[in-house]
Amino acid sequence: MRHVVEFSGPILTGPETIRHGLWSVDGVLTFTKPVEDAAQVLPGWVMPGFVDAHCHLGLGPSGAVSQDEAESQARTDRDAGTLLVRDAGSPLDTRRYLRGFAAEVEPDQLVDTVRQQARDGDGWVKLVGDWIDRDAGDLAPSFPAAVVRDAIAAAHDEGARVTAHCFATETLDQMLDADIDCIEHATGLQSRHLPRFVEQGVPIVPTLINIATFPEIAAAAEAKFPRYAAHMRSLWEGRTERVRAAFDAGVQIFAGTDAGSVIRHGRIAEEILALHAAGLPITAAWTRQPGLPGNGWEQAGCARGSGPTSWSVPKIPGWCRRPSPGWHMWCWQGLSYAEQRAE
Ligand SMILES: [Zn+2]
């Protein structure tokens, strides 16, 4: 006898379309009601899986973790609804960055290292564009502008794209000048940058749940680096306005958690809600995925049970009205699944 699971809640098949009636028959999803009774009935909303555009699988608070731990991080993300991650796990930097997190190179080694990572990687190289310069006591670009330009050109030459961790304003100018492909955090965003992001087609991954930790970073740095602390606080203060301004200007914004170092895995729904709280319509916070079509998961074969797909679709009315910890996310057969739990 076939094993049947029934999904009795609304099924999101597009940003604004809802169907009812979805079944799993021996693990294959179908919209056709099977003859057998369901062994299990799952209420709640069903939607395609999320993409976490900034996620570090294999990194823990003090650097690399074991293979088992990396796998458990991936499972945690999956169980929280993420079915595709863009791994931001091999950042490049000078010795200013945290130990164990990056290939730490001096400026004269950057171009060669980026070229090598472009060859070794799967299409992306990440630069750490700025970090605290302890001599200056403030954020500062990690590399001279000319070196960044050459390094990005080298990656492009190898067919790879480049993204960069950027907190400070001047780092954004440097990266845009160098023809960067994506920016992480972008906390230094100014209105002068907006048309450049749009014209150059450079998306931003704001990682708002990470930016939320800036006050703690500032407090820890206050005694030794007061200028840096004040800088971090001012970047934190502008976080939601900036995201909203970028969205209004037409900049592409993707949800990414920065899980793996200080941010724990499995928080993609929180990041989506943070983007929504910053002013993005829930459909935008949810559906914008790097380099992927925005919807159409039925066409993607999900309903035929061909495994995980990477589309994210809005909108859970309950979430729109009242984002609440009472909603629990999980993932089943390539679908994200939201269930309202009694507190
Ligand atoms: Zn990161």
From TrEMBL:
InterPro entries: Amidohydro-rel (IPR006680), Metal_Hydrolase (IPR032466), Metallo-dep_Hydrolase (IPR051781)
Transmembrane segments: none
Domain named Amidohydrolase-related: residues: 45-263
Gene Ontology molecular-function annotations: hydrolase activity
PANTHER family reported in the protein's UniProt record: ALPHA-D-RIBOSE 1-METHYLPHOSPHONATE 5-TRIPHOSPHATE DIPHOSPHATASE, AMIDOHYDROLASE-RELATED DOMAIN-CONTAINING PROTEIN
Protein name as annotated: Amidohydrolase-related domain-containing protein
Organism of derivation: Arthrobacter ulcerisalmonis
Lineage: Bacteria, Bacillati, Actinomycetota, Actinomycetes, Micrococcales
